[in-house]
Amino acid sequence: MNEQSASPSSAPAHGTILVADDERHIVQLIKLYLSNEGFGVETASNGQEALAKINRLHLDLLILDLMMPQVDGWEVCRRVRRDSEVPIIMLTARADDVDKIVGLELGADDYVTKPFNPRELVARVKAVLRRTSQAGPTTAVVEVGDLHIDPARREVTVAGTEIKLRMKEFDLLLALARQVGVVLTREMLLSGVWGYDYFGESRTVDVHVTWLRSKITGSTARIETVRGVGYKLVGPAAGA
What we know:
Mean pLDDT: 84
Helix content: 25-40%
Number of domains: 2
CATH architecture of the largest domain: 3-Layer(aba) Sandwich
Order of helices and strands: EHEHEHEHEHEEEEHEHHEE
Distance between the termini: 62 Å
Oligomer: single chain
Low-confidence stretches: 1-10
Largest sheet: 5 strands, parallel
Structural class: alpha/beta
């Protein structure tokens, strides 16, 4: 692998992605498909190497396998999220929800279960990058009851007390708050907040709504479930 930084004239058309996985054939497969789409690709075979490259290089997105040697994907994600919002897609070999939920809780933007279709992975990469590039179209403060959301500062307060939200929790709450009383389907929320078309991962939205509800408990605003459809944020004047 070429460790030298590319010159401006040879910079990748669509950004640089780090693929960290100890399975060489998976790394090479992902690299092939991403390179064909115009992405620059850096690779790492363990978590320690991944962290070193993350600190040294300008990266636009990370693809992290969870079960890497030396430092696993969870820990890499945890360390990155201390001071960076670079998009992260997790790779997991388990089909159940445990790895996925933990990854989301640590701040991952998306996850893909092995074995996977490389074309779907590329689609998810593009979607996550598209969402990131389109983030923050307006900085107008949003208020719903005693819930105060400041997009510019990425701060949320309930009755004057600040509450700490993860990146996706904040984005989800803001999406609901900008359309108070309007039912947003899971597909709409996946597209607007996570930036990708519906791949059947409605569980992602449900988990984040559960976390949000626990954090805004006591607010005069609340998130209601519309069974079989989606969610809406309502204020104190909404019908009981």
